[in-house]
C-alpha cells in the first residue's frame, strides 16, 4: 500500500472510531507518580476514565507501572523518570502531543487559577467552585471578581449556556456582588442564583453550597480549595478523595493551556473525573471562552470595578459618635472588612450606629426610626 493510501485508510479509520464513540478523542496527559496512594492509583484512575468517558484518551507520563489489566493496553505512555515528569508534561503540552493535562502540581504564573467542580451532597447536583488553586489576582476583591468571570466561562465550556451565579459569604463578598450587579446593569450577561433559605439573595451561606443552589459558587482560592477537599472526601475520613472532578481546569487572561489539578490524596474516581472534565474543557474551547467572557465583562466595566475593589490607603479621621440611642433595627449586607467604616460614615451623618455580628454575617445596629436615612447614606457611600 502506498503512503498516500495508508494515510487515507488511517484517517478513515479514525473518523469511524470517532463516530462510533460519539466524537473526537482528547489526549490528556496524566502525571504517573506522586500520589499518596501509589502510582497504581493514578493508573486505576486512567483505566477508569476509559470505562466512564468515551472522549478521553489518557496519556501516562512517568515510569511505567502495571495493574495487569487488559484495558491498560489502550493507554499511551511517555516514559520518563519521576524527576522529569513535570518538565515532560509541559513539553508534551507545548509540542501538542497532548491536548490537555491533569497534574498533581503545576507552575501556574500569577493570574492563572483553577476552577473546580464538586458533587453537592444534599441533592447530588454538580457545582462549580471558582476558584480552587493558583491565584487570579493579588488583591482579594479583584481575584474574586475575576473568579466569577472564569467560573462562568468554565460552565459555558461545559455546555451550561446561562449558569446561575452566587457569591459565598466570605470577606469581600458584598463588594464583589455589588460590582457584579453593576456590571449586569451595564449589559454583562450574568444570571444570579438564589439562596435556598427563606430570605433568598445571591450571597450564599453554607446551606446553599450543600444544596448546590447555584451553578457557579464564587469564593476566594483558599476557601475554594478547602471546599473541594471537604466535598470530595467527607465520606472517607479525609485521607482519600473519592467524589467529584478534582480542582478543575486552569483559567487566566492570555492563558492558552488547559491544565487540571488533582491532589496527592485524590483517588481513582476523582482522577477519572478530572480527566473527563479536562477533556470536556478542551472540547468546549475553554481558553477562547475565557477570552470571550473577559471581553464582555470589560465592555460592562470590569476594569472600573476592579479599581473600586482595590484597597485604598486608609485615611485617619477622628469621628465622634452621636449621642447613643436604642438600637432596635439591623442593616445587613455590609462587608465585614467595611463594617467599622460604615458605622463611622453614619456617625458623620449624625446617625448613631453600632457594628455587630449576626448569624448571616456583620450587621449595622441602629434605631428603627433612622433606618431609612441610614440606608440612603450607606448606598450613597458605596457600602450597600
Provide an overview of this structure.
The chain has 384 residues and is of the alpha/beta class. Among the domains are: 103-309, no CATH class; 329-380, Alpha-Beta Plaits. It has helices spanning 3-21, 39-52, 85-95, 140-157, 173-185, 206-211, 221-233, 268-283, 286-299, 302-309, 339-348, 371-380; strands at 26-31, 56-61, 76-78, 100-103, 112-119, 126-134, 164-168, 191-192, 203-204, 216-218, 250-252, 259-261, 329-332, 353-358, 361-366. The strands form three sheets. Strands 5, 6, 7, 8, 9, 10 and 11 form a seven-stranded mixed sheet that branches. The protein has a five-stranded parallel sheet with strand order 3-2-1-4-12, sandwiched between helices. A three-stranded antiparallel sheet has the order 13-15-14, with helices on one face. Helix 2 (39-52) crosses helix 8 (268-283), helix 4 packs across helix 5 and helix 5 (173-185) packs antiparallel against helix 10 (302-309).
Summarize the helices and strands and which ones pair or pack.
Elements: H1 3-21, E1 26-31, H2 39-52, E2 56-61, E3 76-78, H3 85-95, E4 100-103, E5 112-119, E6 126-134, H4 140-157, E7 164-168, H5 173-185, E8 191-192, E9 203-204, H6 206-211, E10 216-218, H7 221-233, E11 250-252, E12 259-261, H8 268-283, H9 286-299, H10 302-309, E13 329-332, H11 339-348, E14 353-358, E15 361-366, H12 371-380
Parallel strand pairs: 1-2, 1-4, 2-3, 4-12, 6-10, 7-8, 7-9, 7-10
Antiparallel strand pairs: 5-6, 5-11, 13-15, 14-15
Helix pairs in contact: 2-8, 4-5, 4-9, 4-10, 5-10
